Amino acid sequence: MSNPVLPEQARAELVRQLGAARQTVRSCKNDPDLLPKARHRVDEIKCALGERGEVWWDDGTPDYNRRMVQNSPYAAWFRNIRGEAYWHRFGREPVPKPQEDRPMRDPMPPGSDVPRS
Fold this sequence. Notes:
By secondary structure, this protein is an all-alpha fold. The chain folds into 2 domains: 1-60, no CATH class; 67-105, no CATH class. 40% of the residues lie in helices and 0% in strands.
């Protein structure tokens, strides 16, 4: 989701640039020198759009993006999804309930957010 405060013209231009940057990533998959630069450009544009980086909302709610759902307040909800169609898409069973004596760890502790493409 893009930052809704972005002017429409700026958002549209960033989306256009993102498409071009993604195409560059696809076209230089076999070039170990260019690929990191292309991925970095995608990351820069996503940050400018508000899809990565610092949160753009200011309502005090925590940011649960880029966290495993099992390690969020939505874990119980996620475990209870039993819709066959939902799980069939992934070809697996629902996420198992964590053991009571072994809580799940946060896969990305605070301060370790690393941009990924």
